[in-house]
Amino acid sequence: MPSERDLRRRLRSIRNIRQVTQAMQTVAASRMRRAQTAVAASRPYEERLRTVLNDLGPYADPEFEPLLARRPVKRVLVVLVTSDRGLVGAMNTNLLRATLRFIQTKPAVSWLAVGRKGIAAVRRVRGSAVAEFQGLGDRPTSTDTGVISRVLRDEFTSANVDEVHLAFTRFVNTLRQVPTIRRILPLVPEEEDIDELPPLQYIFEPDPATVLNAILPRLIDVTVYQSVLESIASEQSARMVAMRNATENAGELIDELQLASNKARQSKITKEMLEIASGAEALAKG
Question: For the whole model, what pTM was predicted?
Answer without folding.
Answer: 0.81
